[in-house]
Amino acid sequence: MREGGTPRGELLIMFEKTDQQLITKALQGNKQAWLNLLKRYEKQIYNYGMRMTGKNEDALDLMQEVFISVFRNLSTYRNEGSFKSWMFRIAHFRCIEFYRRKKPMQGLDDTPEIESEESSVADSIHTGQENKQLISAMQQLPLAQKSVVELKFFGQFTFDEIAEQTGISANTAKSRLYGALEKLKILMEVDYA
Amino acid sequence: MPKHESQLDGATMDKFELSNEQLFGLWVEQQLNKQQQNVFEQRCLDDKTFAKQVEMFNMFSMQSEHYQSDEVPSWDRASTFNMPEKIKWWQWQGLPTLSFATSMLAIVMVLTGLQVRTDDGAMTISFAGKYREQQSEQEIDKLVDVKLAEFQKTQQLALTNTTQTMQQQQMDASTQLTQYLLGASRKERREDFAELIKYVNEQRGDDQLFYVRQLNKLQQDIYAKPDLTSPGNINE
Description:
The complex is a heterodimer. Chain A is mostly helical.
């Protein structure tokens, strides 16, 4: 996933400002610093949104909401843990809000009902074929499980970090992942059948 | 901390039967100890459902690794920057007020004739030209002091010069007087000697004349009265 460490790349990393430096400058009103920080993480958040919502437009809306929220709470970031982890915690809560707004009658642990117009997420989303299958399968998981799958596989977070970000215990996170994989197994088997 | 916790969990759980979820969780986090690893492998062989879960995890993990992150479409990034931009100093709202205040101050300063001046490290603020009077007095005092000093200096110089000239004159006069006195006394003495010599010479002349007359008389007497040539008449 990470690009190879070419000499040019290493040189760029050397001169790249750290998250903390950009945050400090952004808090001082430096717009460019904030935009640099945003560009550093927007791809991750956008793709997170894609996998969580299953729609490009929703992913874009969610990303905007996440970054607005991140900026609003930037002064409360105390450099405890990584910025990425802190940002994904916010993203998780914004995602829940987004979900509740979109589907107010659906619980976090409920399996989403596949509506006729949403019958094929793969058709409506603009992304690669492999991505489509994966996103499509994820859309059929309850939000609670989907969050854990997302953070574990794509965020590369540990169960303790997932627990901290989603406000659940590590054991619950493990159990949710286990449950999610059971469902995915069925879904993927169906897809590949 | 999490690892430690998990290891503790693992240690305590070894005593009991590890559930599929717990074992799976430890495997996912790569926190299985040797004993747990054996249990895990055995479970994979014995429990097909568990093995399928592990397989599913691996497959999904592989798929997620091959997931091609989509590029972010262009969007209004700046809209997330909610902080009011730093106001430029010339856009500062207090600027008109400050401008008005400074204008008023300037007017007051002009009307009151405010003068601020720093002299010799001292700052003087004065109103209505009072400073000017004070300043002129100070300047006059200063000028007088300077002039007096100059005058004193000139006077001292002149006095010194006069004294020196007088001394010189006195010395010259004394010298002249001495020379005159010396010269005069020499001349007088010369004249006195000359007169003395003249007198002596005159006396000698007179004496010689007397003696000539006496001799002539004697001669005449001799010649006129030969009888008188006897010794007895000589004394006459």
